[in-house]
Request: fold
Amino acid sequence: MNKYELTDETKVFYGVTLHRIRALTAVGVLAAAGQLGGWVESEKNLEQSGDAWVSGNARVSGDARVSGDARVSGDAQVSGDALVSGDARVSGNARVSGDALVSGDGLIVWFSHVGSENGTLTVYNTKDNSLEVTRGCFRGTVYEFLAASEKKHDDQTHLEYRLLIEVAHSRITRARGAV
Reply:
Protein backbone atom coordinates (compact mmCIF):
# COMPACT_ATOMS: atom_id res chain seq x y z
CA MET A 1 0.00 0.00 0.00
CA ASN A 2 1.25 3.48 -0.84
CA LYS A 3 1.91 5.86 2.04
CA TYR A 4 1.28 9.04 0.02
CA GLU A 5 -0.22 10.37 -3.19
CA LEU A 6 0.43 13.31 -5.47
CA THR A 7 -2.35 15.89 -5.18
CA ASP A 8 -3.71 18.08 -7.96
CA GLU A 9 -2.09 21.08 -6.25
CA THR A 10 0.96 22.05 -8.31
CA LYS A 11 3.45 24.84 -8.59
CA VAL A 12 6.21 25.56 -11.06
CA PHE A 13 9.65 26.05 -9.56
CA TYR A 14 12.45 26.99 -11.97
CA GLY A 15 10.47 25.55 -14.87
CA VAL A 16 9.74 22.23 -13.10
CA THR A 17 6.17 21.30 -12.14
CA LEU A 18 6.01 20.08 -8.55
CA HIS A 19 3.09 18.30 -6.89
CA ARG A 20 2.10 18.62 -3.25
CA ILE A 21 1.96 15.24 -1.50
CA ARG A 22 -0.71 13.93 0.88
CA ALA A 23 -0.23 11.10 3.37
CA LEU A 24 -2.55 8.14 2.75
CA THR A 25 -1.50 6.48 6.01
CA ALA A 26 0.34 7.70 9.08
CA VAL A 27 4.01 8.26 8.29
CA GLY A 28 5.65 7.58 11.65
CA VAL A 29 5.06 10.63 13.84
CA LEU A 30 5.65 12.99 10.91
CA ALA A 31 2.28 12.96 9.19
CA ALA A 32 -1.22 11.67 9.91
CA ALA A 33 -3.36 10.14 7.19
CA GLY A 34 -4.74 12.97 5.04
CA GLN A 35 -2.08 15.48 6.07
CA LEU A 36 -0.44 17.52 3.31
CA GLY A 37 3.31 17.37 2.88
CA GLY A 38 5.88 19.15 0.78
CA TRP A 39 6.51 19.13 -2.96
CA VAL A 40 7.93 16.49 -5.33
CA GLU A 41 8.28 16.32 -9.08
CA SER A 42 7.19 12.68 -9.26
CA GLU A 43 6.73 9.57 -7.16
CA LYS A 44 10.31 8.54 -7.91
CA ASN A 45 11.48 11.36 -5.61
CA LEU A 46 10.01 9.96 -2.36
CA GLU A 47 10.09 6.28 -1.46
CA GLN A 48 6.67 4.76 -0.71
CA SER A 49 8.07 2.49 2.02
CA GLY A 50 9.76 3.53 5.26
CA ASP A 51 9.13 6.76 7.13
CA ALA A 52 10.86 9.14 4.71
CA TRP A 53 8.87 12.36 4.36
CA VAL A 54 8.94 15.75 2.66
CA SER A 55 7.15 18.52 4.54
CA GLY A 56 6.57 22.25 4.68
CA ASN A 57 7.67 24.10 1.56
CA ALA A 58 10.51 21.63 0.89
CA ARG A 59 11.03 20.60 -2.73
CA VAL A 60 12.50 17.42 -4.23
CA SER A 61 12.99 17.19 -8.00
CA GLY A 62 15.03 15.73 -10.85
CA ASP A 63 16.40 12.26 -10.14
CA ALA A 64 16.81 13.07 -6.44
CA ARG A 65 15.45 10.50 -3.98
CA VAL A 66 14.44 10.59 -0.32
CA SER A 67 14.31 7.17 1.34
CA GLY A 68 14.60 5.23 4.59
CA ASP A 69 13.65 7.44 7.53
CA ALA A 70 15.06 10.63 6.00
CA ARG A 71 13.27 13.96 6.32
CA VAL A 72 13.34 17.01 4.07
CA SER A 73 11.58 20.03 5.55
CA GLY A 74 11.36 23.80 5.77
CA ASP A 75 12.38 25.51 2.54
CA ALA A 76 15.02 22.89 1.70
CA GLN A 77 15.68 21.94 -1.94
CA VAL A 78 16.94 18.52 -3.04
CA SER A 79 17.60 18.04 -6.75
CA GLY A 80 19.84 16.50 -9.41
CA ASP A 81 20.95 12.96 -8.57
CA ALA A 82 21.09 13.61 -4.82
CA LEU A 83 20.16 10.81 -2.42
CA VAL A 84 18.93 11.63 1.08
CA SER A 85 18.57 8.41 3.06
CA GLY A 86 18.89 6.68 6.42
CA ASP A 87 18.10 9.04 9.29
CA ALA A 88 19.33 12.12 7.41
CA ARG A 89 17.66 15.47 8.00
CA VAL A 90 17.73 18.27 5.42
CA SER A 91 15.94 21.38 6.61
CA GLY A 92 15.86 25.14 6.73
CA ASN A 93 17.12 26.74 3.52
CA ALA A 94 19.53 23.91 2.70
CA ARG A 95 20.18 23.01 -0.93
CA VAL A 96 21.37 19.55 -1.88
CA SER A 97 22.03 18.94 -5.55
CA GLY A 98 24.20 17.14 -8.06
CA ASP A 99 25.34 13.70 -6.97
CA ALA A 100 25.28 14.44 -3.24
CA LEU A 101 24.76 11.55 -0.87
CA VAL A 102 23.30 12.52 2.48
CA SER A 103 22.83 9.58 4.80
CA GLY A 104 22.91 8.96 8.50
CA ASP A 105 23.55 12.04 10.62
CA GLY A 106 25.78 15.01 9.94
CA LEU A 107 26.84 14.61 6.32
CA ILE A 108 25.44 17.98 5.38
CA VAL A 109 26.17 21.25 7.11
CA TRP A 110 24.75 24.65 6.29
CA PHE A 111 25.12 28.15 7.61
CA SER A 112 22.53 30.87 7.05
CA HIS A 113 22.97 34.63 6.77
CA VAL A 114 26.64 34.50 5.78
CA GLY A 115 28.82 36.43 3.39
CA SER A 116 28.24 39.85 1.92
CA GLU A 117 24.77 38.84 0.65
CA ASN A 118 23.58 37.11 3.87
CA GLY A 119 22.98 33.86 1.97
CA THR A 120 23.13 30.18 2.87
CA LEU A 121 26.37 28.21 2.56
CA THR A 122 25.81 24.44 2.26
CA VAL A 123 28.64 21.89 2.47
CA TYR A 124 27.91 18.23 1.83
CA ASN A 125 29.48 14.85 1.25
CA THR A 126 29.33 13.47 -2.32
CA LYS A 127 29.12 9.81 -3.29
CA ASP A 128 32.92 9.69 -3.72
CA ASN A 129 33.43 11.19 -0.22
CA SER A 130 34.61 14.58 -1.44
CA LEU A 131 33.07 17.78 -0.14
CA GLU A 132 31.05 20.12 -2.32
CA VAL A 133 29.70 23.57 -1.63
CA THR A 134 26.65 25.45 -2.81
CA ARG A 135 26.27 29.17 -2.20
CA GLY A 136 23.84 31.16 -4.31
CA CYS A 137 24.25 29.94 -7.89
CA PHE A 138 27.74 28.50 -7.17
CA ARG A 139 28.20 24.73 -6.94
CA GLY A 140 31.59 23.05 -6.84
CA THR A 141 34.33 21.61 -4.68
CA VAL A 142 35.52 23.27 -1.50
CA TYR A 143 38.74 24.25 -3.29
CA GLU A 144 36.90 25.79 -6.25
CA PHE A 145 34.65 27.72 -3.89
CA LEU A 146 37.51 29.11 -1.83
CA ALA A 147 39.42 30.13 -4.96
CA ALA A 148 36.34 31.91 -6.33
CA SER A 149 35.67 33.53 -2.95
CA GLU A 150 39.21 34.86 -2.72
CA LYS A 151 38.84 36.53 -6.13
CA LYS A 152 35.35 37.93 -5.53
CA HIS A 153 35.18 38.95 -1.87
CA ASP A 154 37.06 41.19 0.53
CA ASP A 155 39.43 39.62 3.07
CA GLN A 156 36.87 39.55 5.89
CA THR A 157 34.16 37.79 3.85
CA HIS A 158 36.68 35.30 2.42
CA LEU A 159 37.95 34.56 5.95
CA GLU A 160 34.37 33.97 7.11
CA TYR A 161 33.80 31.43 4.33
CA ARG A 162 37.15 29.74 4.98
CA LEU A 163 36.36 29.32 8.70
CA LEU A 164 32.86 28.00 8.01
CA ILE A 165 34.28 25.48 5.53
CA GLU A 166 36.72 24.31 8.23
CA VAL A 167 33.86 23.80 10.71
CA ALA A 168 31.79 21.93 8.10
CA HIS A 169 34.78 19.76 7.16
CA SER A 170 35.38 18.90 10.82
CA ARG A 171 31.75 17.93 11.45
CA ILE A 172 31.37 15.90 8.27
CA THR A 173 34.70 14.13 8.76
CA ARG A 174 33.77 13.24 12.34
CA ALA A 175 30.36 11.96 11.20
CA ARG A 176 32.00 9.74 8.57
CA GLY A 177 34.21 8.24 11.26
CA ALA A 178 37.43 9.48 9.64
CA VAL A 179 40.42 10.40 11.72
In short: The chain has a mean pLDDT of 87.
